Amino acid sequence: MSEKARDSSCGVVGVVGWHNSGKTTLVEQLVRYGKERGYRVAVLKHTRGTIDLDRPGSDTSRLMVAGADSVAIAGPEGMATWQNWQIEPALEHLLERMTAGVDLLIVEGYKHAEIPRIEVRRAAVGGERIVTDSELLALVTDEGVPAACPVYRSEQVDKVWCEIERKVLRREWRKPIHRPFA
Length: 182
Description:
Blueprint: E1 11-17, H1 23-36, E2 41-45, H2 59-65, E3 70-75, E4 78-83, H3 91-98, E5 104-108, E6 117-121, E7 136-141, E8 151-152, H4 157-169
Parallel strand pairs: 1-5, 1-6, 2-5, 6-7, 7-8
Antiparallel strand pairs: 3-4
């Protein structure tokens, strides 16, 4: 682990919001910002849709269709793994697999996970608030929403990162988090 984090465990923060609210854009900006500062950052993105890992007819696709429980493809630029399961595993199981060797894991989705969360809102998208202020690390929005948590605009990535660094990476998060994987 890099010198940036205070202990040997990985920090975990969630980014939640309604469809098209700007979650992936914020996560992308946070990854770049953290990497520029020497952090090792991983992302776990949740989807309710199907996952298109490979094109039909390719070798890995054929192996998955054949019934392999797990298929990985690796090359000079990286690796992708596909694992079949009957029931989607709990977030804690996935976190155990993703946190090794990184300072921060950003989890996109998992709206109701008991991890520090940042909610992203856009006026054009609307929808009810997902997380109460007392459970939020920060709210990122283009609306003038009164909140009892820090509120930032989407272009204030530096300030959002400072919240993550102070409250997650330095372990100052005020709400106790159930972390069976720690």
